[in-house]
Amino acid sequence: MTPNAASASSGPSRRSFLASTAVATAAVAGGMPLLAACGGSDSGEREGTTSGKAADKLLPAFVASTVANPDLPSKNGSASGYTGKVDLAALKTSVPEKLGTGAPIKIMSPFWGSPPKAGCAYYKALDAAAGTKITWQNQDGNTYGQKLGAVLASSSIPDMVVVPSWELVGKISNAVTAKFMDLGPYLAGDKVKKYPNLAAIPSDAWRMGIFGGALRGIPMPAATANWIAPLYRKDIFDKKGYSVPKSADEFMSWAKEATSAKAKVWACDGNLTWSAWSFFGVRGSGPIGWDTGSDGKLTYRIEQPEYLEALEWVRKVFDAGLVHPDDKARTGDAGQRFTSGQILVWNTNIADWYGKVSEQAQSNPDFKIDAMDLFGADGGNPKLYASSPATIWSLIRKGASKTTIENALAAADFSAAPYGTKERMLVDYGVEGTHYTVKDGVPVKNDLGNSEVLNAWVMLAAPAAYYAHPDFPEVARKQVEWQQRMGAFMKKTSTFGMNIVEPTRYANLSSQFEQLEIDYVRGNRKLSDVQAAISTWKSSGGDKLRDWYKELIDKNGSAN
């Protein structure tokens, strides 16, 4: 079985990196703020957050699943891991009765790749098992924000809509409160027990589903110990006798040794910046990028001295010609360059580890991947920041009928089935004999399975995240152990665990920085351009946004 949720659906766009926290589990973090901030259910006040005791009253009761205990329990914010084969004959049932009534519902969701046709065997099987009748309105995940914005601005909204956190910009964040319903009457407290798989979703993940003072989003839990991983070609490292770098200087020295344009081998891909944030201790973007230092001053990530240090270091790597020229030009597929040996380090979603091992197993049996441990730039321990406990939600439109609501919740409950169940097997692999066969106790998808059993149902909800690859159990073990090791160096920012909606007037304040970072490290902009952008950010609203956040944290308490 695959890891839950979006693990198999991280698209080729850079936004897939922002989605990476949706791949795994939410660890119960504790230390939540104490008071409610601004924002009430349908009150018209859509800015701010709700947390602490006020949020607790809105949350579903937590009832842990006992279907299958992981071989590697979650630790330090990691996903859990299953490293044994599944006894397919002993799969348990997590949804003993069909909760759906067969009433039709329309669902809009981002999709990476080519979506299967309506009425395909996979969709028919899931509808039959869950008692649903879903019309999927799958949209290109790389341009989903444009479609989402247009749909939410219209008067015709599908019954259920999947909203990723990285699309909560501009008017979309406020539209979530305005256009989607309060699920509290159906899920708060013991009401959720009608949907046992939803009840087993960790409370921290549910807390992130509170928008505008009401529980609106059904979450896809995420590991908080989750960062872009520098995957490296262990087979080539071993053959060449390379040592895995443990500092920024060591990385630079190794990269110069390993790169040979004549041999068409380069050290790494163009997304090294994403790992550099971890090497240099730079916080993530968005609300989680705010933190209060030991001096009591609240700052945003771009104000950290380490922000410019990380960018300057990556610029040096580019300037030295150690990045593949196609990555510098932002063309082609870095993953293919990695498997062909043209690049030796690929900075990507850790879920891609399994994907590449599986892909290369037959054609290149010597192919081996490992993940570099994240290091402090100076060679010491890294300073890592916890990711959000959930970053993707499915929401039900306001005005939906009770029948529609119950069928949407039935679909979400089915999708959130835990590992070791018939429901999880069906969601992840489809129908035996149609989409997969079993070889040596391991389910293997056929061509139809690979084309139909893709990222649709998994976007509705997910269990507490896990890794489980019956065909490559060692990969699952290494994924979890990497997160556990890195999680030991993790801290929370002041805003951790708060689902914060910033005022619309600040919605585009930081929008220029991603492109500016891309251009600067590639030599197309100057350091002074980045410094000027930071100054402009402060004067054009950043300082006022800081005051807004300070007031928010004063009201709610700090998460750290």
TrEMBL record:
* Keywords for the protein's UniProt record, in alphabetical order: Signal, Transport
- Keyword Nucleus applies: no
Q: Which domain of life is it from?
A: Bacteria
Q: Which Pfam families match?
A: SBP_bac_8
Name where it mostly resides: other
Record's family? Belongs to the bacterial solute-binding protein 1 family.
Its subcellular locations are: Cell envelope
Q: Which PROSITE patterns match?
A: TAT (PS51318)
Question: What is the protein named?
Answer: Extracellular solute-binding protein
The record ties this protein, via Gene3D superfamilies, to: Periplasmic binding protein-like II (3.40.190.10)
InterPro entries given for it?
Bact_solute-bd_prot1 (IPR050490), SBP (IPR006059), TAT_signal (IPR006311)
